[in-house]
Structures are given as structure tokens and as C-alpha cells.
Amino acid sequence: MNNKKNAAAPIGGSLNESLPAMDSWNKIPHGLLIQTAIATVEISVYDHAVIRTNIYRNQVKPGKVSYAVQAKPKGIAFEVTEESDRLVIKTEALQMHIEKNPVRFSYYNSAGRLLNTDDPAFGTSWIGTEVTTYKKMHSDEKYIGMGEKTGNLNRRGKAYTHWNTDKFGYAADADPLYLSTPFFIGLREGLCYGIFMDNPHKSVVSFGASNNRFMYYTASDGNMDSYFFGGPSVADIIAQYSSLTGTMEMPPLWSLGFQQCRYSYYPETEPLNAARTFREKDIPCDVIYLDIHYMDAYKVFTWHPQRFPDPKRLSETLRNLGFSLVVILDPGIKTEKGYAAYEEALEKDLFVKYPDGSVYEGQVWPGWSAFPDFTNPKAREWWAAQIKHLTDAGVEGFWNDMNEPAAWGQHLPDLIEFDFEGEGASHRKARNVYGMQMARATYEGGKNHLGKRPFVLTRAGFSGVQRYAAVWTGDNTSSDEHMLAGVRLVNAMGLAGIANAGYDIGGFAGECNATLFSRWIAIGAFSPFFRSHAMVNSRDSEPWTYGEEAEDISRNYIKLRYKLMPYLYSAFYEASQTGMPVQRSLAIDYTHDEKIFASAFQNQYLFGNAILVCPAESHKEYVKTYLPEGKWYDFLTDQKYEGNSEHLVEIHRETLPLYVKAGAILPMQSVVSNLKLKPETTLDIHLYEGAESAFTYYEDDGESYEHLQGKYYKRKITHKHAHRELHFAAAEGSLSSHFKEVRIFFHGFAGYKNTVRCNGAELPIHMEHISHMEPLSDFDPYHKPPKDRVVIMDINTVKVPFVNEAFSLVWG
Ligand code: MIG
Predict the structure, then answer these.
(1) Is the full-model pTM beyond 0.70?
(2) Which is the closest atom of ligand 1 to the Cα of 508?
């Protein structure tokens, strides 16, 4: 072995040093160890299409802690062959070429096609402690993903910084924002691959910004520890990344409903008034939030004695109205003598400190504050224990804010120190993971004290944050531009393993108006995390505060979301299994279709596997939509379209263009005012003619962890288009379905003879007219008469018992 490894020579200078020639190599468990004069390279085969390359300077003891990656190599078989000028690692899916002089890397798929290669001159290089990998950028190459990053679907030409930042009222193209996931997907010539740089230091990924030679990713210090994902599809790459960094757990069902937030509802009559108004106005809603004013002098784990004299009574009253209560938690703890949280954490030595051992203080809402070191397992345990103060008061959800961490001035000194699981790290290394570790501690506390699924929402995070929390996009602004930027942020987070994300509907900063709110809530109904929120000192922003028309529109779209709950819950289940996002950029299913990257279409996405959402600015009367290959149905009218086509669609305040993919299987239920209530026992399955498709239908109790012990109800439903058959595989799991019968709606089947058989027996057919929306009410005597209800006429339906055994419906 190379005995220079731990020598204390200083690293580099001010000029670039690249990885030089290979001095030696040898096999290690799961891979290879390569020595060069200046750095060591550890290559580990994690899976057939996942290879890790960890490169570190010989003088440096490599850090072992990764907050992002949980997986270990699977131990799959691979071959290593040595040629005169290179080594080749071969799995069944991937070939990695390691050139010997200098050491450079390229990846090929199993068919031998090049996926990605180092820039031959620079490969991996250092300037001082800064480490960079330079990659050849092909002329047709596109880049997608990157999580909470503004900008276009295709990232080419731009560079992004990872440094979690509190950015109030950020510009729609601002960077960096609150959360970092240094993971991108490259696309070229019908191929794709992914690269994740597992380094929490401040980093930059440049997709060819300001140069015409390469793309690169660079970290200010630490290892160049990266994972290459070979796909072959974007969905595979997301699954591969998720198998390393984890998937979200099934969230509590109530958190999939509409959530109403406000900075701030107080005193206690305010959240109650809001909750009661939702019920009076028949607008479904499941969650009310308390923002910082619920606390006594903004001190975490306290309640304001006058504003919230009896929080338990409040949460019970809310629960009786069908609401769950979520409260905000900021990390900064007021440094006040006699304040229990401060004294305890101080005594237990749990705060972030200066190198001389004194506690670091920064200013936030409570004034001078100390910050629990969430990279210290003891601090996480302590914080988790404090959550009991909240669960005892009936709180079911926890909203982690300011955890970038934010302090006035927004420049925490880099020398402050963190435990980093005992490894020790300065702010430079710990900042980007601080927020996700706060979410982790909050999640663990919530889970322990509730004894069921907590809901955790976080603003800051790093790769892997999806294991603990949903994410929202922070302090956006009330504008059309922000509404659409938010859609792209959520699309991009979905490409980076964060399936449960959303934005403040109506915009946090600024004042929303009726037209904008109407469109925003319609789009938001098709985002995974569905919450309206607004800044302190601004106009009211609940759905009824924008006039009757906006209220009607809000009610319609919120109700539509509740009707789609069986479909949505199943999409969440899929995300919990594979990481496939709920809100899916079209780059997942239509990766190599140029059109989806056009600025007019890049905001479009699939909600679940079959509903195409075409977000549009609120003031537009006409909007261009693009339907990718296949056949599509207008969701509200059933009008059929051939795909691969652009359409100029006339829209109104109440219309959001929505299409359903031919073949689709959409399970729906009756409307409930909140998800603590059960819908009627008929499950409606809307079936759309035109293509093969499959759907994994999933139910569980929506709150406990018993589904992990098999208490769920799951079955695969297959639309065998060519056989004119809808097949329900036998139900799996020990739970019985809530639904007793299933009613199938045959959309687009007009040309068929009208017989439907179930396991041989002919079923009676009922003709139904359906309407997914109520017409806007006739509230204005001076107004032109309200538009007619949009009705889909004469849909054949049949009903069958929802038995657990396999059954088939066949028509002809
Ligand atoms: O500096 O808690 O993004 O949602 O309402 C503002 C008050 C602090 C920022 C969050 C916002 C929240 C607000 N917080």
C-alpha cells in the first residue's frame, strides 16, 4: 500500500492538479482500489447499474459519514479485466472504463454505447481543497433534475450552487434556494444516465455555463464521492438514486388533503374560525397550521399563554371538525436563563459551538438564539423527546422552518463546529445537512410520541431528506411567473427523489388576486403537497376571501382532488416503493421527445401515471398545450385527441387544461369534507379506451405503521386493451378494502357492442352522465348567466362486487 497516504503534506496550491497516472490497483470487496501519486480512488459496484467512485487526496483521512446514502453494495457479480492502457469493470448493465494514464473514467451501457466520459485533460482535479470532476459535454446533451433549482427543464447552459439559503421573496430565477440535492440526469442520443455527488460542502454543478468545453461538478472541500447510475430509463435512474438515498414513507392520509396555513392564525379563535368556515362553505380541508405566533416570545416548545391558553382543547375542537393541527418549529432556541429548552440543551452540551468551546449564538425570531447540533445523535434524541410537549397538546404535524439554518445576516461563520456523528465538521461541511437532520429528529420524535405516522414538512434539506419530510418551496411571491416556477421546482424535486413537495398557493410574499388564486389552487390540487399560505401583514388568503367565483373554483378543484384520493394514494404508494414521483416531469415518460423541453410546454407534467396537467398563466385566454405520443382525452369533456400534437386551447378562469392518457385506470371515490371520514363504499374506476395499461391499487389504514406488517390491501389492475379486458389480480395483504363494490365507467368505448361480462356472466349496463365540476353559482344578478355544467353524456357503467379473488371484466 501507498505509505504516503497519511503523510501531512499540504494539499495543492493555487493551480489545477489533475488525477495523474495509476501507480497500482488491487481488488477490494465490491470493487477496486487505485493508487496515484496524489490521490486514492475507491470504486465500488453497488448494483448492476450503480457504481460509486470515491476519490480523495492521499494526505486526507476520508470522512465516512454520509447523511444521504443508506445503502450498501448489494454484492452482485462483476468482472474486472486489465488491458494495456485501461481497466474495465463489467456488470450485466454497465461497463466502466478506467484509463490508466492519466486516470480517467467513462461509462458504457451493456450494448457498448457511450453514456458519459471524463474530460480527457482534466478528469478529476483539485485547486487547493476544491475538487472538481470535468465531463465531456456532447453537442446534443441535455441535463435535467437537480431538485429545488429554478430555471428550465433542460439545465444546459446554467450553473447551480448548493448552499442552503433562506431567501425571502426570492426571484423566480434565484439560486441557491433552501435545499440541495447534487444529483442530475444527462440525456443524449436516446440514452440517459445519472450522477450524484455525495458531498455536502458548498458545491456547484455547471452544465456548460460560461464555457464551450465541459460540464462539471465541484465541491469546495472533501472527497469527490460520486455515484453513477446507468438507467436505462429516467424512471430507472430515479429508482436507483432512491435505492441509495431512500424513499418517503407512506404519509398520513390526512396530509394528502387540502392544508390551510397562515402567518399567523392567532389567537385561538382564528384557526377555529377558519376551520368552521371551511365546513360552512363546504370546502374540503384537512389541516390548519399555527405559525410562529403560537409560541410564547417565539420560544420553541412553548405556547403563548393568552393567545393559546389551552392548546389541547383547541386541537380537540379542530379534530372534532375533522382537522389535524400542524405547528411550526424553528431550530433557534432563545438563550434565556430559566427557559427549560435552553437550559436543558446547554447543560447536556447539545448546541453548535465555536472552536473554543463557547456556544454559538445567532439572532432569529426569539432574539439571540443557540442552535441544537442536529448532526449529534444526542441532540436529535433530545429534540425528539421535546416533541412530546406538542403531541401531548394534540399536534399531529410538524413544520420545520429556518433550518438552512437561517439567522439574521444570513452568514453563519464557517468556523462554528458540529459533531457530524462524532467525525467533527465545520459549518462548511455541516450546513447543507443541518436541515435534513432537524427533520430527522422531528420525524423520530413525532413517530415515537404519536405512535403513528407523523407529518413533517421541511424547508431545508439535502439528498435523502425524503425519508423524513415533505418539502415546500419557501417564500415565493404572488405572481404568475412564480406559480409556474413552483411547478417546475416540484417537477425537478420529483426527478431528485423528493416525491412529496409543493409550494405556497397564492404566493407567500405580495398580494394575490382572484384570477391568480383561482388558477393557482387548480394547479395546486394536482401537486403532491397541497397548501395555501400567506405572509404576515398581507390580505386574507383563504379560498373564500377572493369573492364568490374564486370560492366556487377552489371548491371544485379541491373536491376533485378528494375524489381522486384512491388514485393519489396509490401514486404515493408507488413513490414510497420506488421513488417514482407523484408529480412527474414529462422527461420521465417522454425523455427523448424534443417538444417537452420547449418553453411553452416544459411546465406540463403527469399527476400520477395518467393525468396530464397543463399549467397556464392566470390571465391567458388561450394556451398552447402539447400532447405527447399516444391518445388523450380531455378530462372534463372526454373529447379525444391524437397525441404528438399541439393545441391552442381556449381557457377561462375556471379551466385548467387536464388530459387523461388512453388506457388509463383512474380509481375515484365520493367527496368527503375531510379524510378522517370514509367515502361511500363504491369505488369508481374510470377506464379510458385506447391502450394497454396497468395500475397498482393500494389502500391501508392511512395512519399506522401496520401496513409494514402486511396490513394493507393491494391489487394489480390491468387493462388488456387488445383482449377487451380489465383484469383485477387477487388482492394482496391482510386488510379488507373499504370498498364493497366497484363501478366501471367506460370512456371512449362508444364503438363497442354493449355487453360486458364478469367471469362469464353478463352484467347489466347503466348509462350515466358525469360531471367532474359543478357549474359556477349564479351569485351575481348583473352578471351574464352562469355557464352550463360540463357533462360527459352517456357513459356505460357496470357494477361488480369488489371481491378479493381475481376477476375479469370482458366487453365486446
Ligand atoms: O422569516 O414563520 O418560509 O412560510 O410563514 C420568515 C414565519 C419565517 C419563513 C417561512 C414562512 C413562514 C415564516 N418564516
Answers:
(1) yes
(2) 4
